[in-house]
Specification:
single chain, 253 residues
Length: 253
């Protein structure tokens, strides 16, 4: 571990609580036979994690982040991922400045490649959900990135045998949705509609719900065409923002 990463880890550990760590073990399903089995927690709440990130974000390199992501403590990996998000946000701000001298996505490409290379270290739903939309998801919003590259990345993640890479392929599409591009979300939702894991049912339902906020007709069309292939969990998530009457109508079908 790099010296800077070691300092950051010690900051995280100093904020830990045994009682909170025990709660996190149950909350993130880290027991034997559960999806988070083997993960370790020191018991730091997210507001405290973000405080560590805020104090460290201007001081770290990718080598530091790589060290943090290699750690076996869940909250340390979360800090690493959030620091990567901060690097991505800063690169994006520089790119979008009206008088920016940046002419390509070189730095952003490097950050996205780094994220993809370490994607399996985001090995629980919170680690994915707090990083994927703001790294790969942000990358999907750039018109200068070829459509073939975007789809190749998403499909590679989607086709993986790793649950967390699969979840990244869905959750990352939340950022394009914010930019009124629902095409990636609908495509990835369809690819995972019959996934056996409840975490993917929830991810797809969440994504479809966000699609509905931007284009309710598109959501209705997707539901009409695929209702009988999706889990009830996915359906309930997807229709959360519809009227009570319409929700009941979908649930009756």
């Amino acid at each position: 571990m790099t010296p800077r990463a070691s300092e950051i880890k010690q900051s995280v550990l100093s904020l830990g609580s045994p009682a909170q760590a025990e709660h996190s073990l149950r909350f993130f399903k880290a027991g034997k036979g559960q999806y988070g089995y083997g993960d370790k927690f020191c018991g730091v709440r997210n507001p405290e994690v973000r405080l560590v990130v805020k104090c460290s974000k201007n001081l770290v390199s990718l080598s530091d982040i790589e060290s943090l992501l290699a750690d076996d403590i869940h909250e340390v990996r979360l800090v690493g991922l959030l620091l990567l998000v901060e690097l991505m946000k800063n690169a994006d701000r520089q790119l979008r400045k009206p008088k920016s001298v940046m002419t390509d996505l070189g730095n952003i490409e490097s950050l996205v490649d780094f994220y993809l290379a370490h994607a399996e270290r985001a090995n629980n739903w919170d680690l994915v959900d707090l990083s994927a939309p703001y790294t790969l998801g942000l990358y999907l919003t750039y018109d200068s990135v070829s459509e073939s590259r975007k789809l190749a990345i998403l499909d590679s993640l989607s086709d993986s045998d790793n649950l967390w890479r699969q979840r990244i392929s869905v959750v990352s599409t939340l950022m394009p949705i914010r930019h009124y591009d629902i095409t990636y979300a609908l495509r990835q939702s369809l690819r995972h509609l019959r996934h056996p894991h409840d975490l993917m049912h929830k991810a797809v339902g969440w994504t479809l719900r966000e699609v509905g906020k931007k284009d309710t007709d598109a959501l209705r069309q997707f539901l009409t065409e695929n209702l009988h292939f999706m889990s009830r969990t996915t359906l309930r998530y997807a229709i959360e923002r519809l009227s009570e009457y319409e929700r009941q109508e979908w649930l009756k079908k």
